[in-house]
Write a structure and sequence with these properties.
The chain has about 325 residues and is of the alpha/beta class. The chain has one domain: TIM Barrel, CATH 3.20.20.140. About 50% of the residues lie in helices and about 15% in strands. The protein has a 4-stranded parallel β-sheet, with helices on both faces. Strand 6, helix 11 and strand 7 form a beta-alpha-beta unit. Helix 15 packs antiparallel against helix 16.
Length: about 325
């Protein structure tokens, strides 16, 4: 679609450029030189996965590539440039600093490469605004990566409103009880760091409810909220947006099909839904692909999409001027101006 776009749920490691990744992977001996580009792309795309774990396995090569400061800068800049070419005017790019740090490079040193890429995009006058969301990770028992998650919170505190807009919790949702992460979000709250949380994707509606109890201002995915009317009512009453990602939900078998995805039900119930890609490379889609499925398999309308874009603007951390410009554009297209 030709209108300006916005993406609030977009992972850097899941959205690296396949051609660039192929070239660098061969140069740095991450893959066998005999592997073709098509074979390499099949290692990245989640066309035939059976669950979230298999979906997350597709991040193994991207994470290896991003554990290099030069690569991290290149992939971040390329993603921002590609988004701008897709007419995305604002995006919040997620990354897990603990996955890109190494023995010799700290979380902060790695993240600075992402900031440097963003700043270069600004200097190059790319018509897009970017903020970053820093992800803590669920890796089973919280003891497995406690210090790393604490370091991520401290990093978010240091760079809040200086490139970082939110904290997040991502990973294999059901590998640890959501309640185990309460102390981390209590610490974030004490630092006045706002946060979104991956919840109700693989796990149930109770995880969404717990995330709201922690103080989450948005929910990543949240599709299993549909299973509990009380959770739906909380989302509506407390105006908490869901960052919906159709294709990845279907690939991870959290939703059965595009036709049966609960987005339409959530939207019609009055939940503040937003449309996002999650992982453009792993899911092999962009926002236009998601809009296509919403129009042709969910049987929602362009006006419905525009209303969800307005939701995205309202819950985003875009600048005031950009928010006003986007709202004016969407309202004009809706005939409200």
């Amino acid at each position: 679609m030709k209108f300006s776009k916005i993406d609030l749920h977009l992972h850097l490691d899941g959205s690296i450029n396949p051609e660039l990744a192929y070239k660098i992977s061969k140069e740095q001996n991450i893959i066998d030189n005999e592997i073709s580009l098509n074979e390499f792309e099949s290692l990245l795309h989640a066309d035939n996965v059976n669950n979230l774990k298999e979906y997350l396995d597709k991040f193994n090569i991207p994470i290896k590539l991003l554990q290099n400061k030069s690569n991290l800068y290149l992939f971040t800049y390329e993603l921002i440039e590609r988004l701008a070419k897709q007419n995305v005017k604002y995006a919040e790019i997620r990354l897990a600093p603990q996955f890109i740090e190494t023995d010799s490079v700290s979380q902060e040193e790695a993240f600075k490469e992402c900031l440097r890429a963003r700043n270069q995009a600004i200097d190059d006058n790319l018509d897009i605004e970017i903020n970053f969301i820093l992800c803590m990770m669920v890796l089973g028992d919280t003891k497995n990566n406690h210090d790393k998650n604490i370091n991520t919170i401290e990093l978010a505190k240091k760079y809040l409103n200086k490139g970082v807009c939110l904290l997040d919790l991502a990973g294999a949702e059901t590998s640890a009880p959501m309640i185990d992460f309460k102390p981390y979000f209590a610490l974030a709250t004490s630092y006045n760091i706002p946060f979104t949380i991956h919840a109700g994707e693989q796990g149930g509606s109770e995880n969404v409810n717990e995330a709201i109890n922690f103080g989450a201002i948005r929910i990543g995915h949240g599709v299993h909220s549909i299973d509990d009317p009380k959770v739906i009512n909380r989302l509506i009453k407390e105006k908490i947006a869901l960052e919906v990602c159709l294709t990845s939900n279907i690939q991870t078998k959290n939703q059965l099909s595009y036709q049966e995805h609960c987005l339409k039900k959530l939207y019609n119930l009055g939940v503040m839904t937003t449309i996002n890609t999650d992982n453009m490379t792993v899911s092999n889609i962009d926002l236009d692909d998601e809009y296509y499925h919403i129009l042709n398999q969910q049987f929602l309308t362009k006006d419905d999409i525009l209303h969800m874009m307005i939701n995205s603007v309202n819950v985003s951390y875009a600048s005031f001027d950009l928010k006003q410009r986007l709202l004016k554009e969407y309202n004009s297209l809706l005939g409200k101006e």
